[in-house]
Amino acid sequence: MQKSLENQAVLWRLRVAIDAPLAVNFDYLAPADTTPSDVGLRVVVPFGSGRRVGLILAVLPLSGDGTAADAPAADQLKPAESILRDLPPMPVDWISLCLFAASYYQAAPGEALLQAIPTGLRKPDPVKRRALKAVSKIEHEAPMQPALTAGQTAVLDDLLPRLNGYSANLLFGITGSGKTEVYLRLIEAVLAQGKQVLLLVPEINLTPLLEARVTQRFPHVPVVSLHSEVTEAARARHFAAALTGEAHIVIGTRLAVFTPMPKLGLIIIDEEHDPAYKQLEGMRYHARDLAVWRAHQAGVPVVLGSATPSPESWANVQSGRYQRLDLPERAHADAVLPAMTLLDTRRMTLDEGLSAQLLEELAQGLAAKEQSLLFINRRGYAPVLTCTACGWVSNCRRCAAHRVVHSLDRTLRCHHCGDTSPIPRQCPDCGNADLRPLGRGTQRVEESLRKHFPQARILRVDRDVATTRKQWEVLEAQIRSQDVDILVGTQMLAKGHDFPALTRVCVVGADAGLFAADWRAPERLFAQLMQVAGRAGRADRPGRVIVQTEHPDHALYQCLLRHDTPAFLDLELTARQQAGFPPYAAQAIVRAEAKQIDNVLDFLQRIRGLVPQEQHPEVFIYDPVPMRMVRLAGRERAQLLLESPSRIALQNFLNQWLPMISAGRGMTRGHAPGGVRWGVEVDPLEC
Ligand SMILES: Nc1ncnc2c1ncn2[C@@H]1O[C@H](COP(=O)(O)OP(=O)(O)OP(=O)(O)O)[C@@H](O)[C@H]1O
Ligand SMILES: [Zn+2]
Questions:
Q1: Of 224, 259, 326, 544, which is the most exposed, with the fewest CB atoms less than 10 Å away?
Q2: What is the mean pLDDT of residues 652-670?
Q3: Which GO terms describe its biological process (predicted)?
Q4: In whole angstroms, how far apart are CA 29 and each of 6, 48, 61, 90?
Q5: Residue 286 and residue 216 share a domain
Q6: Which of the four pLDDT bands, split at 50, 70 and 90, describes residue 665?
């Protein structure tokens, strides 16, 4: 190295981001072939005792004498090993997106940048160019486009002239209104301009569906998908294809919001209300919010589609930040919204939780050779096993939760930590052999339906039978080919699917969501019920939805009965405004856990007092409290909620406060004495 310095070959130093939990970037001596346009390239550098792949954030002049304030002397810098030139540099707007995410969600910039890159591209060797070629490209003729409905035409007339600049649009289209067709027409227009489209979906299960529709419509256009079930190798390939511009359409789940797309022309977020857009590990970002930020920065339109928009987006419409576009009718010429019925079960005798009316509905469905769906948002056989003699319940040994009875493999399973053991033959406490399952889940409902309708073809669909995307695809095909009479399923079946033969949807066990401690529970319940109701009668036969409830007068059900999503959202927002909840306040939460709750609470109490309240009048810090489910996998958990009427005030406070926590004795980012692990979440969805 000394030699090349003498040769005057090294003129630059590189500022490099590295995947490390530190808020700093690192400077290295640049290799001889460096030019100022190398910003955004990957670079192999020595780090600690090993080598790492970092990302070049800046190419700065090397001031040999080290006089400039931030310029170290050349001999203090380690030389970078080599710059990887197998791919074009990450675009500047992509770097800004990652840096913005890091600052807003309080993560280290290096972590945000490098973790957005697939691991296959974070290895010190260049990617084999050959590997990048395979982009899925189906060669066949494009199918006929349907004639647009009046609603679709109106929406497109509004959107199409606005493709060349930023606008945030909430596409509020009832279930079955043909939002996908609107997306396809927008994509077509953007592709015609030679630009790329980013299409986000909340769930892996929805990607093949959409991918199929997109590749059918645009048979000659290279499409790639990015989600957690794409293999590492394919992810690297797809990411690279987006970066080089080879891929024109990227379809993916939340992580795809970080796909580098140099010719980005449009972002679409389907089912924008879905909580799955929130990342709950590592940097806890919200992909929808980041997508809107990204669109703004890139100067491209963003379309947020939903039949049940999030209250946050609804508020953004009210404040004028988003423009609302409506699809108020179903697309299929003969399809109307399903008729809704609330079955008041207070004075009914139920058989295994099912009323006679509900069973009669299913019988009618069978007689008419139509598909029915029984929706119960709880998997397993029963949520808890109890002893009739001593009151023993099947608690999890490691969590503050019951273990769920699973009948097929006869196990008790914790749905939080996964702890599983065989169902005991007798009570572990008193030896009584009469153990009884309480309540019901999908398996138990399936069992009783088989008793009532022995001739029917019944299919249960939940996480236990559809663990992977492949399994789900098999089930989906089965449903679509009408090999099924009655479906029993959880919310897996609610989202975004189009099953033309399905006419009846029966809902049981929904009341649990009405009075939950989490104030977002009703919002989620309403969206779920509207979505699941939306599966009924999407083609030529009218649909019926029957909801069993003990609270038929509840405002939520009344809105549901009238299909009145706007009324529900207005109610929600009014309640939130009165309570001072988001979006009328900004929140952040510090969560901490340790073996003992006392250590956790001590830690939170201590950090709460780090800055006196009078020094941050705009940010209120609540008392530390144990989390609702205090014990998870043997660790006890508590949280500290921060709230402010101003998002900026909260951000400023966090920027000052979090480094103070990490600087404390024995503390680092993420760890504290007493075996405490902690982390921060901005805009939490659960608190
Ligand atoms: N212009 C049209 N003419 C005829 N059929 C259409 C038209 N647009 C869409 N459809 C059909 O209507 C059905 C519903 O469309 P789509 O799945 O796009 O609805 P959606 O708004 O996404 O509904 P959801 O929110 O329930 O998923 C599909 O079968 C689709 O093929
Ligand atoms: Zn557990």
A1: 326
A2: 85
A3: DNA recombination; DNA replication initiation; DNA replication, synthesis of primer; double-strand break repair
A4: 13, 16, 10, 21
A5: yes
A6: confident
CATH number of domain containing 43: 3.40.1440
Residue 180 Cβ inside 6 Å of ligand 1? The answer reads yes
pLDDT in tens, 363-391: 999 999 999 999 998 999 999 999 999 99
- Cα(343) to centroid of ligand 2, in Å? 35
Same domain, 676 and 553: no
387 is in an annotated binding site: yes
Q: Which of 172, 268, 498 to mutate to test the pocket of ligand 1 (most atoms within 8 A of CB)?
A: 498
3-class DSSP state of 376 = coil
The answer, yes or no, to whether any atom of ligand 1 lies below 6 A from the CB of 181, is yes
Condensed to tens digits (0 to 9), the pLDDT of residues 394-444 reads: 999 999 999 999 998 999 999 989 999 999 999 999 999 999 999 999 999
Secondary structure (DSSP) of 379-438: -SSBSEEEETTT--B-B-SSSSSBPEEETTTTEEE-TTT--EEEPPSS-TTT--S-EEEE
Query: Is 95 contained in some domain?
Result: no
* Residue 500: CB atoms within 10 Å: 15
Find the domain containing 72 and state its range: 2-90
Is there an atom of ligand 1 within 6 Å of 152 CB?
yes
Give the integer Cα–Cα distance in Å for 670 and 636.
16
- Using a 6 Å cutoff on CB, does residue 496 contact ligand 1? yes
Write out the two tokens for 551: 């609270």
Q: Which of 156, 170, 181 to mutate to test the pocket of ligand 1 (most atoms within 8 A of CB)?
A: 181
The pLDDT value given to residue 6: 45
Mean pLDDT of the chain: 90
- Name which residue sits closest to atom 30 of ligand 1, judged by CA: 178
Using the atom order of ligand 1, give the atom closest to the CA of residue 498: 17
Residue 469's SS3 state is: helix
The predicted structure's pLDDT at residue 7: 47
Query: 397 CA distance to ligand 2 centroid (A)?
Result: 6
559/655 same-domain check = no
Predicted pLDDT at 295: 98
% of the chain at pLDDT higher than 70: 94
Residue 5 pLDDT: 46
Q: Which residues contact 614 (CB under 8 A, 6 or more apart)?
A: none
CA–CA gap between residue 525 and residue 290 (Å, rounded)? 25
Q: What pLDDT sits at residue 89?
A: 97
Q: Average pLDDT, stretch 592-601? A: 95
Nearest-atom index, ligand 1, CA of 327: 21
Q: Are 680 and 283 in contact (CB under 8 A)?
A: no
From the list 535, 355, 366, the residue with the least C-alpha distance to 448 is: 355
The Cα diameter of the chain in Å comes to 93
Ligand 1 atom 27 nearest Cα: 496
Say yes or no to pLDDT of 1 above 50. no
- Kindly give the distance from the C-alpha atom of residue 539 to the centroid of ligand 1, in angstroms, as a whole number: 9
